[in-house]
Structure of ABC transporter domain-containing protein:
Amino acid sequence: MILEIKSLIKKFDNRLIINAFDLEVSKGDFISFIGPSGCGKTTLLNLIAGIDTDFSGNIIHSPANRLSFVFQSSILLPWMTLYDNVLLPNKLNNRPQNNVNEILQKVGLHEYKFYYPNMLSGGMQKRASIACALASSPNLLLFDEPFSGLDFINRQNLTDLFLGIFDSDQTVIMTTHFIEDAILLSKKIVLFPVNKSNKMKLIEVNLPHPREKNDAFYQIEKIIKDYYSCESVVITS
């Protein structure tokens, strides 16, 4: 077990955000949190990461956990080259620094390693942030809206990148508005309700890889859309 969440309750000024949430995360899980803006997806990532510690319930990490968080906005340091940005996590933690070129190859940015962040497109900056996260060899990766702000082509490229670089041992939790990306990538999908008196819904995605848009795919998509149609919320396919 990488992570276990038990009876988690989160409030802001007595306003209920997360209501009695339970989740078990095993090694190799790819879990997507889906829901409209303001429903608590990013809040839960912050709780898991330890950025926010004001909650009731339990968040239990494996003692061996190494966690990396890829934020929605780029946090690349503008005065450093791409290479130095990716090198930095290991440098700060006194870890071996010989994997940077390999990681940049994985994310398709090796030829841009001496570029500065302002020389990279939005899609390239997303991949650069992923490279920085991979540099510390985490066993738990958190992504906050990795597809946000990307056009269709860059979204597709990033989905392909995820499928290519995350092997069966890599554990990932991401937030997203996009149903299609969640189904293509995830083993489990958590649906966040707007009405906090409702419980979150967990969907197991038992589809083989590579995944195709077939009847089983569209059945899962329908379950998600039906869940939100009851709450009068539109989620992007």
User: Anything to note?
Assistant: DSSP finds seven helices and nine strands in the chain. The helical segments are 41-49, 82-92, 100-106, 122-135, 152-165, 179-185, 215-229. The chain has two domains: 1-65+139-237, 74-137.
